[in-house]
Write a structure and sequence with these properties.
The protein is α/β, with parallel strands linked by helices. The chain has 16 helices and 13 strands. Helix 3 crosses helix 5. The longest helix has 26 residues. It binds adenosine-5'-triphosphate (ATP) and magnesium ion (MG).
Amino acid sequence: MIYFTLFVLIISISFSLFFRWTTFINVVKQMMHSIEDHVYVYQLFKVPELNENLQENQFYRKVSTYVNSLSSSIEDSDFTNLFSSEGKDIILYLDDNQIVHDTFLGARISWKYQVLVEDDYQKKKTFVLKMKKRDKRRILQSYLQHIDTVSDEIEERCRRELKLFINTESHQHRRWRSTPLAHPATLNTIVMDSDLKIRIMSDLESFLESKEYYHRLGRVWKRSYLLYGPSGTGKSSFVAAMAKSLNYDVYDVDLSNVSDDSDLKMLLVQTRRKSLIVVEDLDRFLNDSSSSSVSLSGLLNFMDGIVSSCSGDEKIMVFTMNYKELIDPPVLRPGRVDVHIYFPLCDFNMFLTLADTYLGVKDHKMFPHVEETFEITGATLSPAEIAELMVMNRSSPSRAFKSVMTALQINKVAASSKLQGRWIGDSSDQSESSSGILNWKDVSSPAIKEIRKFYGVLSAKIGDT
Ligand SMILES: Nc1ncnc2c1ncn2[C@@H]1O[C@H](COP(=O)(O)OP(=O)(O)OP(=O)(O)O)[C@@H](O)[C@H]1O
Ligand SMILES: [Mg+2]
């Protein structure tokens, strides 16, 4: 063996006349390693991505994070994937069948990434750890602990970029696909009662600190929130704002993409810690069960979070709907849904906050008129509708406020004339909106004439002030 090693070294040295010094060193290293491979007895450990129940192997994720952080070793592999996202550095990812080396407490370790494509075209991904048998007893436990710690630190750093997970077609093993959570809403940009905002966030915080308490009571460590209210009142925006405030990912469950009750359970099991599990427009499913293949009892079990309880991690669920009046009360009973939060249409106070946020106007001579209009008409516009009028008229706050008052009046007249239609901020109907005025479902109606008359009077009144 020694003669063989010497022979190889001599050959290598002569080749070094033709290679650059660094290349020469690498070649020698590789040779030494392959010689070592023949001399020592190795032990292999497989870390598959999914277990036999097709659940995500949490340790695989940690290994993947850890191995892909060994960038200098990845650079040395024959094939490397290079990725970047907007404004970010280029990241290296190990390719199929490539090996990276690591050292720990003086022991040399290698990782191989393997991807097998099965008959049904599903990819079976595995990391294979290789270490000398004689090192195993000395370092294995502490090396695995090291991977756990390092990957946690990396994930914590990466958590700054939150993810939105969406469930894919049910025939795929890996059901969740992620994309960066790009929703711009934050708790500061959501216009709602500030006390309510604070109460919700402190409820969440106290829940997250209560692991022991739930455990003692024998309850699943879970808290569910129902956000309900008319369309465009900020429910979906609030979900994004909650996630950002907690630094949690969002799992958005699309019930129409779930094949049956066990598929729904599987989706829940495959969610990770520190995430919000969200079902939007729950009322649509409850009012029209044909919109999904999930049964009502499957959905109730999902809401109760029983399957997730085996992980012992916290679960925060958020459901949104427009109207809860027609929902069967047991579906929303305490324990199943813990906190009900109503998102109302926009009143004068919310209007003031929107004017500040969207137009930068804190005070305006028209505000008393707007307030008076709100008093007469009540709140009939959603924050989304008012926000849209402000965006359309952002170059002229006066025009924006007039548009809001006119829209409120239209809805008031429509209600008193028992008309079907109401003013809606539908940007697809550009009939009048391009001039920053209004959209109206029934433009030929007598109510509109009445509004125009009112609008003329109002303009004159404002002009006088
Ligand atoms: N309370 C609010 N504060 C600030 N902006 C709001 C608010 N409500 C709505 N908006 C604006 O309207 C848009 C639509 O809001 P969002 O999608 O959150 O409403 P929603 O209640 O989820 O409606 P839907 O019931 O139709 O799903 C948001 O992007 C945001 O710009
Ligand atoms: Mg929504």
